[in-house]
Predict the 3D structure of the following.
Amino acid sequence: MHLLLVGPGALGCLLSAILTKGIGSTGDRLTILDYNRNRAEYLTGEGIVYQLGETEETIAVTAVSDPRGLDPVAPVDVVLLCVKSYDVAASLDFCRPLLSEKTLLIFLQNGISHLGLGDLIAPATAAYGTTTEGATLLSQGHVRHAGRGVTYLGFPESPTDHFAHLIDGTRAVLAAGGLQVEVTERIIARIWAKLFINVGINALTATLGCKNGELLTISGVDRRMKSAIAEAMLVAKAQGIDIMDDPYLATKIVCKKTAENVSSMLQDVRNKRRTEIDAINGAVEALGRSNYIQTPENSLLCRQVKEIEAAYPTPPVPRP
């Protein structure tokens, strides 16, 4: 099985390291595809530094910047798309030469703006993934595994045996590399479950400049978190989404478990990078509008994050 990972940012580097460890001596292989030629050459030459706690390990990888340069004798079986939500369309165009009717493409974005984009990857077949693994990119090719979680993979509709085999093979490699991974028939509900958590954490930490755990101690924040999640739940119900467990309680639990973590959105703000606010709180606001549901807290959070981005000394740059 030939796996192709697109986008060596924080999550991409983490999964690349995990996949390489999981592949081991099997006949599977991993290639990283990166639009940035210099970075692709760097990763191939220097490898990925995977840091877990106080331990660091350099993992050799192969990265390319031109999809047309891949070996035609070993076609890509599975594409893991790890780019930011706002880069999905451009990335799909970039890797389109590698997509065939036998290719499985797994979307691994935050938020929900990527849902329903399966038609854009024809003739390939789409699957989706979501993870609560924590990843922080310390420098180019140096990723810190910031927190353990669970990764879910699944299809929006029942797959053929060919694609079921590919997604289970991907699960097996990730699991062999050390992740807790499940293939689920409720992947859309799982993606929304993570959205509720992101809605309650990311923008608040970005606007307040605080770690996840501090959201539970700052006066008035608990009310805002609860309101933002409640609005998202109303939108989800209007969309016919199956809501799992108690999203507000789940968010508070995540805050406690990741108390020292810096959310991805706050990392983006601190590095003057474009955030994924449009795919998270912005998506709730947009769907609320189309369903005639008011979302004042999510709308406020969107405005506040966009005001921060507008104040950057230069236009926000994409995440590396």
About this structure: The two ends are 27 Å apart (CA to CA). The chain has a mean pLDDT of 95.
